Structures are given as C-alpha cells and as structure tokens.
Amino acid sequence: MTPLTLCLLLSCGLFSVGLAAALTRGNAILVLLGVELMLNAANLNFIAFWRFSGGPASTGVVFVLFSLAVAAAEAAVGLALVIAVYRHQQSIRLQDAVRLKG
Amino acid sequence: MILALLLITLLILASAAVAMVLRNLIHSALLLVLSWCGIAAFYLWAGAEFVAFAQILVYVGAISMVVLFAVLLTRPARDAELSVPAVTVLRVAAGLMAAGMVASILGLAVLTTRFSGAATRAPQLTVKDLGALLAGPHAAALLVTGVILTVALLGAVLIAAPAPAPRPEDHS
Amino acid sequence: MLGTGLLQGLAVTAKNLVGSFHDPARLPTLEYPEVQPQLPEAYRNFPFLVSESAEDPMGTLRCVACQICEKECPPQCIYIEKSKDKKPDAAGKQQIFPAVFVIDTSVCMSCQICVEVCPFESIKMDQVFAIATTERFGSLLLTREQLAKPNSYYHQIHPTEAAEVDRRLAADRQAAEDKAKAAAAAKSAAPTPPAKPATGGPAA
Amino acid sequence: MTPAAVPPDRWLELAPLQLRDWVTGFLPASLQWLATGLITIVAILAVFGLLFAYLTLAERKILGRIQNRPGPNRTGWFGLLQPFADGVKALTKEDVVPRQADPVLHYLAPVVLVALSLLGFAVIPFGRHLVAVELDAAVLYFFAAGAATELAIFMAGWASRNKYALLAAMRALAQLISYELPLLLAFVPVVMLAGTLSTTAIVAAQGGWTLGVLPHWFVLTPWGFAGFVIFMIAALAESNRSPFDLPEAESELIAGHLTEYSGFKYALFFMAEYFGMCALCGMAVTLFLGGWQAPCAALECIPSYAWFGAKLLTLLLGFIWIRATLPRLRMDQLTRLAWKFLVPLALINLGTAAFWSLTAGWTGGLQLVRWAVALALVAGPFVLLGRRLSRGVAPRVYRYASS
Fold first, then answer.
1. CB contacts, 8 Å: D180 with chain B
2. Is B16 inside a domain boundary?
3. Which of A41, D103, D104, D105 is the most buried (most CB within 10 A)?
4. C115 CB contacts (<8 Å, ≥6 apart)?
C-alpha cells in the first residue's frame, strides 16, 4: 500500500465517522462537529494529493487555507444557530426543533 | 515515515470515533480537539507547515472555543433529557449503514484506483511562495473569503444576539 | 485623553517603589522580632493584677476578691476564689484576698469592663500581645502568679493613667485618714456619743 | 548557525554553542542530534525554570515595595531562598481532588497547560545563534501553540465541578477569544514589513543603526509603537495577568479555575502562567524590540543573549509594575476594550503599516511628511476611539482623598 492510498483511506474513514455522527446523533452541536470532520476529511485529501502528485502546483494548499476559513465561518454561524434554536426550544436536540415559528 | 502516518491515522480516527460516540459533550469536544491536532500533525507530516499551524490556530484556538461555549450555554434541562427517548435504534442503524456504505464505496474506489507518479519528496513550498500565490493568482478568492468571514461573523452575532425582551403577556 | 489616568497611576506606584528605598515614611514595616514596636500609651489588650511591691507581689495585691469583675465579665473568662483568712492591704486594713484568680485569655475579648468596674483599681490592662503558646488550653489560662505585676510596671506602660490612679488612691487614703483622725478627734473631744437623730434612724 | 561568520574575539557570543558541542562531542555521531536537542530543551527548561522561580520572588518583592512593605526577606539572604521554600511546600502539600471532579481532565489540565506554554520557547531567538528550532512559519507556530492554552484553562475549570471554577472557565474562554484577535492583528504589520514569518529573519530585519545610535527596531516607528502597545495589552490579557485576571478574580471567584487545585498541581498552574508570560514577552521583544540586537553599535560587544535577557526582564518588570498599579476590569469592560478599541486600532494600524511600507522610498522633506502622516494615523484613531470608549465616564472626584 502506498502512503497516498493510506492517506486517502484515512480521509475516507474520517469522512465516514463524520457522516455517521451527523446522521445518528440527535444533538445539534455533535451534528455540526460531524460536518466539521467531513470538511477536514476533504482537506486531508487536498494535502495528500498535493504532497504526492509531484507537480509544481500548490493549489491544494491554497484550497485548504480557504477551506479552513470557510469552516471557521460555518462553525460560527452554525453554533449561533444552535444557540438561537436553544433559546426558543430550550433544547438542542434536533428532533425537538420541529416548529417553524419560534 | 509510513509508521508515523499509521500512528497519526490511528490517533485521528480513534479520537474522532470515540468523540462521536460519547454522551458527554465536553468530552467529545475535547477529544475532537485531539483529532484536529492529529490532522495538524498529518499536515506537518506531509510538509505543509503553514497549513498545519493555521489548522491549530483555527480549529484548536477558535472553533473549539466556540463549540465549548455553545455547549456551556445550551445545557439541556434535566427533565427534557429524561422524558424524550434517546435516538432510536432504527435511526442509528440507518445512519451507520449509510456511513458504512459511503465508507466502503470510497474505500473501494481508493483501493482500486492506480495513482500515477507517487512523489517521494515533499514539494517545497515556503511561506513566501504561499503569500505570493494568495496575493497573486488567488487574490480574488482571498477577498471573497474575507467577505464571507465578515458576513458570517455579523450574521452569527445577529442570530445569537438575544431577541428584544418579550412583553409581559408573552409569559405563560 | 484616554490613558493619562493609567500613566498617573503608574507614576504613583513608581514613586512608592523608589521611595521605599530612601524614605522611611514609605516603608513603615518593622522587622518585628528583632525590632520591638513602640506601642502607643493607650494601647491595651489583656488585663493584669496590680500589686504594690515587686518583691512580694502575692502579699500586696490590691485585689480584695470582691468578685465584681467576675460577675461583670461578658465572656466570663475570670474565675476567683476568696481566701478564708485576711491580710492587711496597703492601707493596713485587714482584707480578704483572692486565693485563686484565673483569667482565660483564649476567651477574654479585651473589653476592659473589668477595669471599669473594679472599685479598688486592682485590675488594669496590659500591653503584652505576644502571648502565643504551643498548646491550646493550659498556657493561655493565666493564674494569679502570672497576672500579678507591680505598680511600677503599670507606671511604665501607662504613665499618665497610673499617675492619676495613684493620685486618686492617695486622695482616698488621705480622706480615710482624715476621717479616722476626725473620728478620733471627735471621740476624744466628746466622750459621750452624740444622741441619735430623732428621725430617719432604723428601727432597732 | 554559522560560527565562522563571527570574529574570533566574540567568544562570549559563541560560548553556549561551544559548551554544547563540547558536551555532545563525547557521544557517538549517531546520537549527537538527539543529545543536541535534549541539551537545548534542558537549557531552556533550566533557564526559564530559574527565571520563573526568581520572577515570583521579584514580583513579591516589588509588589511589597510598591505597597510600602519589604516583601519576603526571611528565607536566606534577602529572601533569595524563598522560591525553593515555596517549591518544597508545594511538593509536600496534600493533593486534594474533589469527589465530583472529572479525574482525568482534572489531572490533565495542569500538565497540558505547562506543556503547551513551554512550546512557544522553541522558536524565540534568544541570541544571535541561539534558537531551538528555525521554522519558516515560526510566528504562526508560536501563536498556534499559545492558542491551545485556553483549552487547558477551560479543562481545569470544567473538570473541577465547582461553580466558581466553571464561571472562571467561561470567563477565560471569552477573554482569550476576545484578546486573541488584537494579539494576532498587532503582529501582522511586523510580518508585512519584514516580509517573513520566521523569527530569526524578523530580528535580522531590525538590525543596523542610524548614525550608530538609533536602532532600527520596529517599536521606534509609529505603527510599530502602536502595534507594540496593543500587543502588550493583549499579552497581559492572554497570560491572565492583572488587570485582566478575571478568570482567577480572588474577590469574586475565590481563585477561579484554581479553586479546586492544591499542592503541586497549583504550582504547575503558577509555573505555566509565568512561562506563558515569559514566552509572550520574548515574542514581543523579538517582534518589536529588535530581539537580541544591541541598542547602539558601540554596545555590540556585550553578547546578544544578554541584550535579549535585559529586554525580556524589562518587559516582565513592566508586567509586575502594571499588576501593582491597575485595578481589575469588569467583564463587560474587558470585552468592550478588546472589540471596540483594540481591534479597530489594530486594523487601522495595518493601514498605517501599509502606508509606511509604500513610502519606504521617500527621503529628505518627504521623510518628515511620512512620519507626520503615520503619526497622525496612529494618534488620531487612538484619540477618537478613546473618546468613544470613555464616553459617559466622568472624571473621578476624590472627595476625601484629595492630595
């Protein structure tokens, strides 16, 4: 197995863990964290291909930097949403957030 | 080299998986921080120094703080947690099956693909090169990212800011 | 402008820091066990018993075991047992004396009420504050022997007050002597006792 | 590390390196890299451990003098053995862990905190040839390592299962998030002007003197001075020092996140606080005060690490002085200061630095214009934002304590 394959398997595993968490857990914060993990898995791929492609292009690194910024924005907005939902429902379980009107 | 990669893989996957299973949110958040640190270690391993430090700064320094803050601000009421049954078995099974299928498809795809030109040496990328790239060809994207971050920050403040105090008749 | 107040504050503390090296007013700390503090005259903490002479403190205690202080003491830290016999006091009069006089300084709250109520000026406030001991009970229970201190010591620690007390005692003694003399003179002048007043006398 | 580039009379400059090479010379060549690394680590630990010990003593002495008392002076000559007495006391005290506490996190918090606060020392150039690790992105590494310390404080507060500790943890999070931003924004101009993230290169960029007396330190430029002040204020907050010591505000929160810690764990927290302070001050010296550069050409004969030490000690004493002077802020004042004052100032400072960088070619009379514009760009926002910040706050009237 080449290192590249191992890297890709790592990112694939991380993505699945994040996906499983996002699908099974009822807690909004954990779902958000699962989504973050999936984002991270994508970043891992970028870096792995940049490292092992052997080409001069550094687009992978640049893309990961942008992705980090977007992940930060996503976390900020997502957690703000969680707090807003909590204020209405007194709960952060996604099953409880069923009313459209707060 | 491959041993270090294996260790990092183990660290990332184990801490992420355990974090996603734990009931205690604080524990999961802290374990996820460990996982993020592992990812930073992977970047270091791959030679992307700058990205690794940025990852730590953004994830460990900022996102984990916000997550912990959100956890502390949203303590579930005791009775609510007890009365509503936890996630149903069916749901868990369906979620795990979906994730497993995704994992197997991706894994099969990775294992069956032949990648060309496996470089043995990490490409050299200094911070200066990176800066030139960001300010040169990717300047537009950088600006857009800045705008997104600003808008996200303002939006987050707006969403999370407490609504104006309810009128007395709203209280039941 | 913002920040000027901060700079002023920093200047004040810097002055203290530098001043503490050359200005005694900015470093008033005493190196206590080596340098004993100059206590102000009015400083007082625990009571002691005044005796007339330093040589025979037990024989010349002013205390007559009247037990007023024992009764008045708010935390009840004084314990007195009267003597069975009598001893002449400073004026030569036969008086009862305290066979046991104990003050529990772990209970005493230094209120000075015992001093206020004592009719014989025999209990006064001391200035010894270093009374720490290595055990909890016995050493803090001061007995008659530990409490007794001569009048000269009283003069030493509270000179103004002691002089006033002495003056008062002397005046009392003088008055008593004058009265005794007058009584003696009256006795010698008129051998027959004066007639009882017609009104106000107790019915015998 | 090129010893050949230094004249032979500068043996003091090279003495630490030669000592290290002499020690590693006894080992086989295959182990020398390991020994070199270990010696570097041990040297940093020893120097800063000792500095920590005597900094606590100096702090107590200076606080005492400022409060008109002599401070500890009984243990040893002038109290010089006091830190060791304290250490023995901390080691021999009972370690109490609350029954309700989260045992793992409660144990991990001080360990993680000390470990993280030591990481920053790796990239600080202590002298011309004394830097543990030369990294291309050293400044970023330093702040990434520093950012993680907040987590340890949170762990301590949360794991104690104590309401005061939890409040302290939340305060610590809010405070550290707020002040991370001005801290990072304050050093960006330096990176812009020096054109590098490497600490050695930043120090090298501040080398040289005008007329042999005026050093080219960044603090002596308008934007550098503003950046330095913002950086130091944010560093005070980041290291939880008074007047920003809200997480351990004794008067309201007992001891904040330290409430449930005793004995050696408490000492570790203390150590981490001082290590963090030393690291941040060292970074401030590196970024703004010219690192190990001597203040004028004539004084270059003194070895560079002595200059670094002198500057570091000056900043640390400044921290102590500030602690002795300023009262603690309230939580809303703290966050308002960060978000409404320091962050805008730091952003404007970026513009000032850009202007300075663009006008680098101006000479003669234009140089005066350059200075005037840059000073106005620094002072104007400061006055205006300061007026906004202190709006509604009347000057305090001392009715009974007027001098």
1. 61-62
2. yes
3. A41
4. C47, C123, C124, C125
